[in-house]
Amino acid sequence: MQKIKSRIRKNMWGLCLFILVISINTVYGQQISRDSVNRILRTTPPFTIYKDNYIITGSTIGEKPTSSNSDVKYQISFKHRLTNASLPLNSYLFLTYTQLAFWDIYHWSSPFNEINFNPGLGLGKLLFKDGKLIGSLALQVEHESNGWDSTMSRSWNYASFSYTTAISSKSILQLKAWVPFFYKQDNPDIIDYVGYGQATYIWEIKKDKLLLDVTGRKGTSGWKGNIQTQLSFKPFKSGNAFVTLQWYQGYAESLSQYQQSTSMLRLGIAIKPPTYLFY
């Protein structure tokens, strides 16, 4: 079993590269004009989904499911646009909040194992070329903690810079880098496990029906890092609900156990953002 897990860890980055190379071959589609973007911003509510909102359940890969290795994981995430391109350089001010919870629902008392809180404040700017939207930039200050105190407290702060672009008619790439600060008291070696950035790739395999998204981080120490892959299927034409299968492999899935490597496969329901480029 250990050999299988080791092989998975060694090949996870190659899998991401393979997916990227295949899907990047799609033809670049029609881009959205600046006028259309302005119309969307005027008519779209400023409060909307930020990251995926989901509730999923599953167990450790390669082990028989038990109450000890199975759980429920859910994420609530939203953003609120505070301005409409009214700041210098036509930038936007926005707030974000993400809450990630691990719920031991299969234990007798169904306790929450951990809840991670991630608020942020950012400036965003949409990028245009020849009057067409090609991507977006964001500069944020973020905090992440598990809300505990004493020896179990885990938290860190970071300034992040992200670039999101549509690299084909069916795929989006986001590159995000961060500079941590005020984090060494609770978890001085956390950068060994989360590194200084991450890459997210979203591939629309079938329009309005089937999506694949992959997020990877590389820690600064050896093979430490993680990869999260989601395959999401939309069963109905209307609405924005997906049946999603999520695979998490690596370190730092939760803050309190960031030094522990996990390999989890979970299935459930997800609600995805309507767009990945707008604020």
UniProtKB/TrEMBL annotation:
> One Pfam match, by short name?
PLA1
**Keyword Membrane in record:** yes
Matching InterPro entries: PLipase_A1, PLipase_A1_sf
Q: What is the lineage of its organism?
A: Bacteria, Pseudomonadati, Bacteroidota, Cytophagia, Cytophagales
Which reaction(s) does its UniProt entry say it catalyses?
Answer: a 1,2-diacyl-sn-glycero-3-phosphocholine + H2O = a 1-acyl-sn-glycero-3-phosphocholine + a fatty acid + H(+); a 1,2-diacyl-sn-glycero-3-phosphocholine + H2O = a 2-acyl-sn-glycero-3-phosphocholine + a fatty acid + H(+)
Cofactor(s), names only, from the UniProt record:
Ca(2+)
Kindly list the places in or outside the cell where this protein is found, as annotated in its UniProt entry.
Answer: Cell outer membrane
**Which superkingdom does the taxonomy of this entry point to?**
Bacteria
SUPFAM superfamilies named in the record: Outer membrane phospholipase A (OMPLA)
Question: What's the protein here called?
Answer: Phosphatidylcholine 1-acylhydrolase
The topology of this chain with respect to the membrane is:
Multi-pass membrane protein
Species, as recorded = Pontibacter silvestris
- The yes or no answer to whether the keyword Transmembrane is present is yes
Q: How does it assemble?
A: Homodimer; dimerization is reversible, and the dimeric form is the active one.
Keyword terms of this UniProt record: Calcium, Cell outer membrane, Hydrolase, Lipid degradation, Lipid metabolism, Membrane, Metal-binding, Signal, Transmembrane, Transmembrane beta strand
